[in-house]
């Protein structure tokens, strides 16, 4: 915030107030998914995951719009060498300077919620890939504990970073960027393991004769996550570069260069909002087939066929509850435990 121009944050503001979130959820189920008791397995965990994502979007809009307004109010100054740069924070009016720390706290809360959301995704996909007949339930698994501990660290650590570094308003946001980008980059790198193993899992599910809708949904998730990983790196790496240059002693070559400062801020903003949009598509997957009213004909395969997937079968180890198969928190579909267990045995 201290070195970026008003135009860079104007891009953040424009992207943050896009109405796609409202439009998509309305088309998804007319906001029914936002009710506490929505879904077949209502519970606090499911609600936490839904609201942690949905709250982060408007909070990010608050930060982006407010920062843009302040930046344009303060404008630019002319340096002794004739260079025109955004006005430093120390020269802000007292009224606008009073808003800097509160906005930094808002941004730290946004990033904490973002980490909570994506840690859960990572933990769930690891849980899915590691399934076997002896695998414990989600709430007893090490993957759930990984998400729980990581979420606690994020929710406490990022706002605490803003509080501890608030005395120097010109580097406060740099430390938030550094801590948040480090955590998000690490999470994204870990997700590469999931992406690497997922094609083999999809192939095994297909070979086991799963419903076409299950295979299509898994393939769609795989493609969406490929794109999202790219944009998440575009979000975290530019901000990490800016943060590292800002907190290290030295001439701050990048932060004092108007072009590179704005370029990295803009790339980070685009990566942030595009990856957030893809997350929305994954969390709340619309079915154009169902929305169009199409109903396929009943299958001609006998009901006793092992290729048929019975929703009431004890082989199903989780409910349809959220954008992911077997997830206790998202609406999706079910996979037979025998499929994931067989795949696990073949690839160990």
TrEMBL record:
The keyword Signal does not apply. It comes from the Eukaryota. The chain crosses the membrane at residues 6-27, 48-70, 99-126, 146-164, 176-196, 229-251, 263-284. This is Transmembrane protein. Keywords: Membrane, Transmembrane, Transmembrane helix.
